[in-house]
Write a structure and sequence with these properties.
Elements: H1 26-46, H2 51-58, H3 62-69, H4 77-86, H5 91-95, E1 108-111, H6 118-129, E2 133-135, H7 136-144, H8 148-154, H9 157-174, E3 179-181, H10 190-199, E4 201-206, H11 209-218, H12 231-246, E5 251-254, H13 260-270
Parallel strand pairs: 1-3, 1-4, 2-3, 4-5
Helix pairs in contact: 2-4, 6-13, 7-9, 9-10
């Protein structure tokens, strides 16, 4: 007989609890299931597995997995263990601590390709919300003691990823309330993206390839053009490849054809900490 993790939202309301122990709310129960589903999906996508492949490897039906990832399905210990093995992790890692994440996440991380407006929007948003602003790449440069271009030239991408993850972990331990502009490629690092997804409110600043291009050039950054005759085609390809990852952000804000003021006002409204709700968890 399988033992089930009980959905606290459906627990018998007449069951007696020890004195002083409050009944968990419906929102808390949904938060557990939503977070579990999010972690299963994140681990599956990190391994580039389809639902059908995960179903085959775990012995759990695709339909159940789909409901699980959407936060709509309860799950037995046996099934959870099978799914965890299939995605290369453990049941405890998928469950986490069971707390309601969106009630505690106050760091906002901005995602998007270079030219998305992360730095500009981030600074203005931090002023509007009266919380500090940081850029992950600048923190990495401070840690490594050299510019990003030098990091890649002398040490390569693997070293950069190690420093990125180390800096990100420390930042999330030290800051409870902040705006963080991330590097455009952070979503391609499964562990770094998982940390951002679980411990921050992720926001994708969405724009067209042409807008990315124009903004970078207007900032005086000619790197996308110099000695790269097919730079625009490369930018389009990169955006096309990363869009499925960016789209996993908790919130998406289109910046196309909009003023900075309107973008910042929209984000401030949607990120109003008094209005954060569990329904917004991916």
């Amino acid at each position: 007989m399988e033992v089930y993790y009980r959905n606290v939202a459906t627990r018998n309301p007449h069951q007696r609890r020890p004195r002083g122990q409050e009944a968990p709310s419906h929102q808390q129960g949904q938060a557990v299931l939503l977070q579990l589903g999010h972690r299963v999906r994140a681990n599956r996508l990190a391994r580039k597995m389809t639902l059908r492949q995960l179903a085959s490897n775990s012995g759990v039906s695709s339909r159940f997995l789909s409901d699980l990832e959407a936060g709509k399905a309860n799950i037995s210990v046996v099934k959870l263990a099978s799914i965890a093995r299939a995605v290369g992790t453990g049941p405890a890692e998928l469950l986490g601590d069971g707390a309601a994440p969106s009630l505690r996440r106050k760091v906002v991380s901005l995602l998007g390709l270079r030219g998305a407006g992360k730095s500009t929007v981030g600074r203005l948003l931090s002023e509007k919300l009266s919380i500090p602003f940081f850029e992950l790449d600048k923190l990495i440069e401070q840690e490594a003691g050299m510019r990003l271009s030098e990091i890649f030239a002398f040490h390569g991408e693997d070293y950069y990823r190690r420093v990125e993850l180390s800096v990100l972990k420390r930042f999330l331990l030290e800051h409870e309330d902040a705006i963080l502009a991330t590097g455009g490629s952070v979503v391609t690092s499964p562990e770094a993206f998982r940390l951002l997804s679980e411990r921050t409110r992720t926001v994708w600043l969405k724009a067209t390839p042409e807008e990315h291009w124009d903004r970078v050039v207007k900032q005086g950054d000619l790197r996308p053009i110099e000695n790269q005759p097919h730079a625009m085609a490369e930018l389009r390809r990169r955006l096309r490849e990363r869009e499925p990852l960016y789209s996993r952000a908790e919130l998406t804000c289109s910046t196309s054809g909009r003023s900075l003021a309107s973008v910042v006002s929209e984000l401030a409204r949607r990120l109003d900490r008094r209005a954060w709700s569990l329904a917004q968890i991916p």
